What we know:
The protein contains 12 helices and 29 strands.
Amino acid sequence: MKxxxxxxxxxxxxxxxSHPDAGKTTxxxxxxxxxxxxxxxxxxxxxxxxxxxxxxxxxxxxQRGISVTSSVMQFDYDGFRVNILDTPGHEDFSEDTxxxxxxxxxxVMIIDAAKGIxxxxxxxxxxxxxxxxxxxxxxxxxxxxxxxxxxLLAELEEVLGIESYPMNWPIGMGKEFLGIYDRFYNRxxxxxxxxxxxxxxxxxxGEIANNHPMQESGLYMQALEEIELLNExxxxxxxxxxADGTLTPVFFGSALTTFGVQTFLETYLKFAPEPQPRHxxxxxxxxxxxxxxxxxxxxxxxxxxxxxxxIAFVRVCxxxxxxxxxxxxxxxxxxxxxxxxxxxxxxxRSTVDEAVSGDIIGLYDTGTYQIGDTIVSGKSLFQFxxxxxxxxxxxxxxxxxxxxxxxxxxxxxxxxxxxGAIQLFKTKYEDYILGAVGQLQFEVFEHRMKNEYNVDxxxxxLGSKIARWIEGNTVDEKLSSTRSMLxxxxxxxxxxxxxxxxxxxxxxxxxxxVKLYNPMDDR
Length: 523
Ligand code: GDP
């Protein structure tokens, strides 16, 4: 039995960030397989379906194959307890996707070797950067022909602005993929070679010492040359720089063929951070402190249509959660008993009785919680720092179909906005503009307004816009136009919604005195 300190130190909590189709599901499955959490691959639900009906939120989930039960996956490996948090992609990409990254201690970034760095990866990467968390890179699909490895490293640096240290290096690719040269373990791991012969040890010069057919291969020679280049001109390995998120260790592999995955997992566990202290208005909160504390990073509605319940996902930041314990919601000072909690494994919902710092628990919620809420078991009612604000990309104008339903309309909007799924803006004519980072949010909004507040809404799509806040918040209303619409956010701050990049630049040229900013840029 581990004691509390050992329990907390064994936690490794991360999310996988990637563009759809890079191999997140496949890699997750393989990791779960190693951890023994699932019996066979194919258990983690895919999300590859076409049209869906909006008649029922649960129905949306079913038809789209969004797996709500795989929101959090947990397994044990080599004395560690690993928590993988799902970050939905495609159209179900939402603010929750971003916010999930506030609940992890590190991230694994998967890149498709043929496609390189794609848009969604960039967005998610930025959020990790903002938080300064370590990022581990897995370059996937080496069993297919992709970009040259040196080119991929250059992309990491140029597109993402992060330096890299390749932990291993591919020898060939596609049909000629022979394996990886492992700089970290000083060995070669051969592709599609039986278990006991899989590894070829290297000598102190980093070359194959004993006679081996691999030595005859031009691809091996080429890999050696490239590694020499990396040794001379590449970055040095630095545990500290990995920890502060300025250097990403890079692993090559093929999730589909389970190649390079175990080595990746073992090395990841060596360098990934244990639960880290978290800032609050009472100073940093130590994860090894025995008083329980946690914060709500996501609220999922209607997971069970029979109960219309919501689940508040809480990241445990200190102490131990025990079923039935009493906690206080810092925002309201209200005490409550946490009797019903749930934890999500790959396939079914199972109830959790105990969780420590680093773990995620799901609490049944009847409207008590808001995104960002802190719950504590101790006397001090501190609150964790507010969650960052994410800039929406898509906008709609929304009105109630029936003017008699204004009251319900406002109530519904205000509650849904508080949940954090959508952001609300108002024009000076009191028009309601909603912003979201993903299209599905609007459909869920429409559906919930009807089902939970009995209001039919009319949605007019405004398309994508670039939102910019204004330093000092003072602005001349006359600068508002159709291409640069001036609105107020729900904190009464002025925001311009620009038609496109061109409109933004034109505006900046004409009005150099108006200093614009995007809360999501590094600040
Ligand atoms: P996700 O959208 O990121 O979750 O991606 P999936 O894991 O669903 O993978 C997308 C597609 O890529 C699927 O058809 C996978 O079988 C395929 N795939 C994943 N990993 C590999 C790999 O290592 N090699 C090859 N050739 N295909 C892969």
